[in-house]
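Q: what sequence does this backbone want?
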């Protein structure tokens, strides 16, 4: 896949944005320069069924306008149904190779990993990229586990140089550069973007830090 699309990977669902509208937040983040969006609809009050499908379709349309890949978290059937660009699964979300078979070779498949072994298995089973985390403390995911530290990014990047890595978990604008310098192609964030007052401006600032670290300038 095109690694540059992973640079600033925004993740959100309706439960991450207070009483704002997800499409408004997404549009501001797209204007600010996110390079991928993942719809992750989880937790109390999360949309389901037709409501979730309608939201996914709207997110997809908006992402298409900005030529930004639209990824669905967990729900492989929904991803296929709405024609998402890809799907992201965790270690508990089923057999990775089977998901690859189901979505075909064209869609992006991302897998959350927590060790070198996880990353190797994901790569062998057809993942296009791996998420590594949580790198730092996070309050955005229940049972996220203890931070794995940025060293794991470097280790996986060394062992699997061809596998794009996205760091996740507690990443802020200040920490983003470090994650990239350890060997990640990009940073994934919920709260740093979703909780910000001026989403567009904050996104633009984070994008600047990530771009700077990516080019090594
Ligand atoms: N997976 C590992 S940590 C995490 C997910 C989905 C939450 C990331 O959210 P934040 O707010 O950027 O720490
Ligand atoms: Mg999952």
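A:
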């Amino acid at each position: 896949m095109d690694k540059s699309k992973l640079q600033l990977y925004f993740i959100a669902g309706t439960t991450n944005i207070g009483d704002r509208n997800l499409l408004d937040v997404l549009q501001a983040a797209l204007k600010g320069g996110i390079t991928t969006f993942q719809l992750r609809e989880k937790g109390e009050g999360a949309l389901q069924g037709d409501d979730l499908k309608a939201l996914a379709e709207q997110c997809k349309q908006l992402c298409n306008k900005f030529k930004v890949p639209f990824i669905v978290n967990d729900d492989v059937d929904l991803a296929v149904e709405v024609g998402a660009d890809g799907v992201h699964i965790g270690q508990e979300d089923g057999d990775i190779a089977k998901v690859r078979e189901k979505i075909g070779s064209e869609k992006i498949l991302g897998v959350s990993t927590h060790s070198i072994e996880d990353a190797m298995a994901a790569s062998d089973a057809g993942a296009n990229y791996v998420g590594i985390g949580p790198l730092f403390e996070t309050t955005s995911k229940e049972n996220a586990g203890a931070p794995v530290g940025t060293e794991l990014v470097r280790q996986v990047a060394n062992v699997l140089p061809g596998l794009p890595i996205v760091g996740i978990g507690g990443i802020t604008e200040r920490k983003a550069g470090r994650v990239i310098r350890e060997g990640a192609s990009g940073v994934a964030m919920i709260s740093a973007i979703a909780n910000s007052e001026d989403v567009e401006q904050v996104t633009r600032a984070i994008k600047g830090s990530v771009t700077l670290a990516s080019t090594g300038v």
